[in-house]
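We close this part of the discussion by returning to an individual protein. Part of our work consisted of pairing the sequence of a single chain with a tokenised description of its backbone. The amino acid sequence and the backbone structure tokens for this protein are reproduced below.
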Amino acid sequence: MARGYSAEGVILKKTNLGEADRLLTIFTKYKGKIRALAKGVRKITSRRSPNLELLNHVKAQFAVGKTFDVVTEVTTITTHKKIKEHLFKVSLGFHIAEITDEFLPEDQVNKELFELLVSTLRRLNVEEDTEKIKKIVRTFEIKLLAITGYKPQFDHCVKCGGSLSKVGNFISPEAGGVLDKKCSIGGTFIRPISADSIKLLRFLQESTLAKIDRLIITHLLNNEIESRLKFYIEYLLEKELKSVKFIELVNR
């Protein structure tokens, strides 16, 4: 059995251990999500520390350990510098990392999600327009749900299969999509959703990133789908997202 390996990945999370070490959660392209120990990186003299920051896209060497594998060498592919220079984009970058970590089991390879993550961070890094930045994040959320097996149904009422009307529809994470007015009666975990938001979410779900890049979304519509996806995702995870609180604080 090999005692070491190399892997390309994006750093999703870091936790301090002891006086100088750090436990990293890294989403790798060919090994899935792994946790690895970076020894001594919190020391002032550590040369590896700048390479092992959140959202960095890296290539690293690992030694196989009993509890955690250990990072032995690391080179940076990109740090996504422009994300980290902009507080609003930092908050969204952390959000992307958090939901990726939450939805992805350890040691499960998911190349499609990895490529989506890398592409999303690259777009977020260069984009400056606020509404386009929000669109990038909403696109990531809706496509992540589909890739990880939680794809919401927006084509028809998920309960009765009937057509959705222009008004009176509700989104239900419990049911797995949108309910019409009749089927929503008595529902507990539901939120009203406009026909425009349903249409937009369906487009983001099914379209290529190139087509989505050309789409212009209004501020009001961006805010509505942000609220509904937050509700949907937090229901599935059964907890509030830490990054959402940070985003709200930044936006005050």
